[in-house]
Design brief:
The chain has one domain (about 35-310, about 360-389): SGNH hydrolase (Rossmann fold, 3-Layer(aba) Sandwich), CATH 3.40.50. It is built from nine helices and ten strands. The chain has helices spanning about 1-25, 50, 80-85, 130-150, 180-185, 195-215, 255-280, 290-300, 360-370, and strands at about 35-40, 105, 170-175, 220, 285-290, 315-320, 320-325, 330, 335-340, 375. The strands form three sheets. The chain has a six-stranded mixed beta sheet, with helices on one face. This is Alpha-L-fucosidase. Pfam families: Lipase_GDSL.
Amino acid sequence: MGFLVQLLAFILSLLLVSMRAEDIINSPQPCDFRAIFNFGDSNSDTGCMAAAFYPEVSPYGETFFHQPVGRASDGRLIIDFIAQHLGFPLLSAYINSIGTSYRHGANFAAGSSTIRRQNRTVFEGGTPFTFEIQTEQFNQFKQRTGKFFNQARKSSFRGHFPRPDDFAKALYTFDIGQNDIAAAINRVGTEDSHAVISDIVEHFSKQVQNLHEVGARTFWIHNSGPIGCLPVAMPVHNNATNHTPEAGYLDQNGCVNYENDMAREFNKKLKNMVVKLRAKFLDASLIYVDMFSTKYELISNANKEGFVEPSEICCGYHKDGYHLYCGNKGMINGKEILAGSCEDPSKYISWDGVHYTEAANRWIVNRILNGSFSDPPVPITHSCRALKL
């Protein structure tokens, strides 16, 4: 009897949340976002690593920008489409000093970034711009722009920075964790993966709480995509002998099961973290966005949606166990190879084996902006109002 009462109470709570979410969706008053502040890795880096170290080379950026612009794609990223959807210009990378404006926000994301600190140099695929550093950069940005805005009352430069009260009315977006999961996968068997993932999520939680402490109130948090479905992870690009993987190693889409299972565990713990922070911060709106399901849906229906097989890579050379990444030249079997791009990137999901094409990013973002893959299920334009649920 007690279990039945609890079950009915749970169902009623779901119905109430659904009804309130419907009220938000139908509300004529969307959020009055003044800016966007983004934190993440190469999935949303709009120029940090290119400004700090080596710039991207052609053919990166060829589809939309017609030149390399610091994005790991042929065109726009999901964060670019989000900014445009909300009526903002594309976000400038925080450390990019050339031709930048931060009036409507800033992007702190950096390629190869992780939530936890990693014992890797930049040349080993690491980065100094961990999530912790990104939030510290934001704090510095907020403090310095506030002082500058108040001191330079008559300066035209004030138009290049957010107003002090814009920070509380901004949207804070997050897409990070995939590199942490990849690092944990590489160390399977040498450490407790479950404990590592729990620790990663705890580090994430700490930084979100730090941002809340300095005024952030609306959080749009992406979970990890299906890392086992990245073409460079698939045996088809890594198996020079064409050896058939053992049963259960791959799923029906050719994705590596145990890698996706690691991502699922991270996502489950990340969602639990979001739920806990909602209970702690009643003045904040925290939206959990299921990017894994969105991307996996695209991968599962690639041909139906007009794409080639999801294992195919548009830019780069990945054959017979050899890997030459997009835009690079190399000698393979005595022959110089230029790892150029495919004829039509819009037909591909994967741009370079790790990152998505603009066409795939557009497909994904069209599924997430309306709240279909969000918890609670509210569109991004009304995400600030989810605190009322």
